[in-house]
Amino acid sequence: MATNTKETKVKxxxxxxxxxxxxxxxxxxxxxxxxxxxxxxxxxxxxxxxPIGAIVRTGSDEAKxxxxxxxxxxxxxxxxxxxxxxxxxxxxxxxxxxxxTYPRLISSAEISDEDCVYCRACERICPQDAVTVARVLPDxxxxxxxEIDIDKEKCIDCGICEEMCPADAITIxxxxxxxxxxxxxxxxxxxxxxxxxxxxxxxxxxxCRGCSYGEYEINPEDSEIQGKxxxxxxxxxxxxxxxxxxxxxxxxxxxxxxxxxxxxxxKCETCGACIDICPCEVLSFPKPSKPxxxxxxxxxxxxxxxxxxxxxxxxxxxxxxxxxxxxxxTPTKSKSWQKRLESLKT
Amino acid sequence: xxxxxxxxxxxxxxxxxxxxxxxxxxxASGLKYLAAVELTRDGYSQKKISKMLNIDRSTLSHYLxxxxxxxxxxEIAELIKEFTPKDFLVLTDAVIxxxxxxxxxxxxxLIKKFxxxxxxxxxxxxxxxxxxxxxxxxxxxxxxxxxxxxxxxxxxxxxxxxTNSIKIWEE
Lengths: 346, 171
Known about the structure:
The complex is a heterodimer of chains A (346) and B (171). With 346 residues, chain A is an alpha+beta fold. Chain A has three domains: 95 residues, 2-Layer Sandwich (Alpha-Beta Plaits); 81 residues, Alpha-Beta Plaits; 71 residues, Alpha-Beta Plaits, CATH 3.30.70.20. Helix content of chain A is 16%, strand content 28%. In chain A, β2 and β3 form a beta hairpin. Chain B has 171 residues and is mostly helical. Chain B has two domains: 108 residues, no CATH class; 57 residues, Alpha-Beta Plaits, CATH 3.30.70. Chain B is built from nine helices and four strands, in the order αααααααβαββαβ. In chain B, the strands form two sheets. Chain B has a two-stranded antiparallel sheet. In chain B, β2 and β3 form a beta hairpin. The longest helix of chain B has 18 residues. Classes of the chains: A alpha+beta (346), B mainly alpha (171). Chains A and B meet through α10 of A and α8 of B.
């Protein structure tokens, strides 16, 4: 007869049932945002959300959720409801989000290769460090042209040009007493002519053929920047910061939930727990306008909110209300699944 | 778990019969005999029956001609047949140790018919599928489908269902 087994690895764990059909539910604590949707959707009350405020703020060893393996029936609802895929049910090794009969939340974040200019704005802003922009820059030497020559007869080895060169293109090598060699790395030189102007002995002749400060023809291919922007599906929480900051509108983010976020400033005691737990950096304290000013009550930037509800759960003063008004999921024929998913609306 | 159950049942049977201790294999022979007789009556060939019950043909032939099988084994099998469907199934499953043969015996010997209904509250967790000893349940679109033809009315699935979505009753 089927009995469940539980394997725990630090904060992560797997619950398995392998009688006829193999089912495995894995939980990744690092990915979990502590929103408690799993607790809410579980049809057998097997999941309990831990004291997330304390866990997040103290870096506790405790996992954010606890699943009772005696109660869990490995139905997979938690896995479907989890907005960040911290819970994953596999049947015969296949994640249920890939099995058509199971519904799944519709959410995505994509960066269009066509429009992206690899500016890394998304990489810098991402609160989950989920974006990586790899880029290959063009050869600097191909973007400037010119000529430079140092008359070694005139050169007195003063080192002024080497010290002043903004591109570190000039190297003087001391070969022995009163013996030296001076060279210019033409891959680094941008023909700015600072060396020529600074040389006390007029030993340097240089000219920018197409002036590096002006517009001139270069081969368009030579200035091409190549790259790839990648969003780590496991880390991304669909907050939309990348979409917001992208100067080229290259990012499209689809969020799983629609809703409203309300903060009751009368009740807020400025403890900051909500700010610590929010995976989307929606909540913050306003910056003080002058030194020594006491921070004001919490502020929200609702556009980035995914309505996960973690802040509401963590607030000790019931100052936050997260209303979920819409859930975006693929259709399912199962009435009970529909009902449970709809029950996430508040 | 099964061992204890069988043991208790053997004890009970022994008390009733007062004919000494019967080992599980004797009980298994009795059950196979009953099924074989029933299947012969239904017109199955000995060749087919020996396959269905996983016994060799000569043993089957001996059984059907009243040889090599003590009368008390048959009596005990008759008695087991009258147990609740769950006890009959669990005991048969334990002594036969062959899923297909168990299915054949249960289906052949149990004459009761059952009606089944799975409510929309079913979440498709598959616990019933794992529980059913005779493979009468499959999942279809995240809902359990129970084959009433195969169902023996043991109610173990109904018992295990975490959402109380299974209803089975005798026709």
